[in-house]
């Protein structure tokens, strides 16, 4: 009986030991501390920025269409081609125009052919008039001397009047030929202008951004064939809320960020459209952009308007780690590194606004050592890094 008691006691002690929970080991108690520097998340006064989204548009663009109806013979340019002012874009079939041009030239030559005959008629009429005047002068002297009868004098006077009328008529016909010739010249020039419409030219230097014409189709007046934008003249058309418009004025500086650029552009408001969109209750504010070869219509952009100032918590941008859509920082909590998820806002130079997840006065590890992990023991440098 005594021997059984001695055997039960060790077993009971062993079961009791197994039932106790193991004690948690101190975090990073055996890990080597990581030497870091920290900064204090501080409250700063930043400009209050209102951000509006918009789209880049060309300041000067033109929709090119034909001025007359005709079949397209040849298309000279493609989308994306750079064109110069007056460059040939499209040629139309000019055969009908050539017929009209030849008809007008024939009519003009016909008028020109009648000019020598009209000049001869004027000269002949002038000669008859001169003879009639001389004859009338002689008959008048003789009539005053009573050498001729009244009948003979009246006949000489009638011949003078008839010669004068014939001369006036010849001159009038010659003047009519001049008018007909001028009219024929105008008709020829008109057909030449119309003939020039068979060649569609670029109105200014730019880039072709749209094309809707192919060889063989029937071009109609007013039907778009190309869209050309003038290079280097672009602006951002941003939608501004109705409640914010009172704080925006023409000439106001604006910071612009575009999707195809990795830096911010400094621009100015050039125009405020005085009509509100009924659906969005927003106004269009046009912002003149600097001349850049990379700009194109349709690029998405953001405009930052400074509307006063505000107090924000800011830290260096390099202290923030990004994990997909999440952002975090390492903070020093009693000598232990802890990863903290944060929400960020606007950036100003190399600093970023912290909207949530961090309070003023907390110690943020910066710069972040590559071997730092959540829960690492820290050795903080004696001097705090100020930004």
The tally of strands reads: 22
Number of helices: 3
Overall mean pLDDT: 84
What percent of residues are in strands? Answer: 35-45%
Give the class from helix and strand content and strand pairing. Answer: alpha+beta
- Give a short account of the largest sheet: 6 strands, antiparallel, barrel
CA radius of gyration: 48 Å
Order of helices and strands: HEEEEEEEHHEEEEEEEEEEEEEEE
Assembly form of the protein: single chain
Adjacency order of strands in the biggest sheet: 3-12-15-14-13-16
**Percent in helix:** 25-40%
pLDDT below 50 for ≥5 consecutive residues: which ranges?
1-30
Outline, from the CA principal axes? rod-shaped
Keywords:
about 375 residues, alpha+beta, rod-shaped, disordered N terminus
Can you describe this structure?
- With 387 residues, this protein is of the alpha+beta class.
- It has three helices and 22 strands.
- The strands form five sheets. A six-stranded antiparallel barrel has the order 3-12-15-14-13-16.
- Helix 2 runs antiparallel to helix 3 (150-196).
- It is rod-shaped, with a radius of gyration of 48 Å.
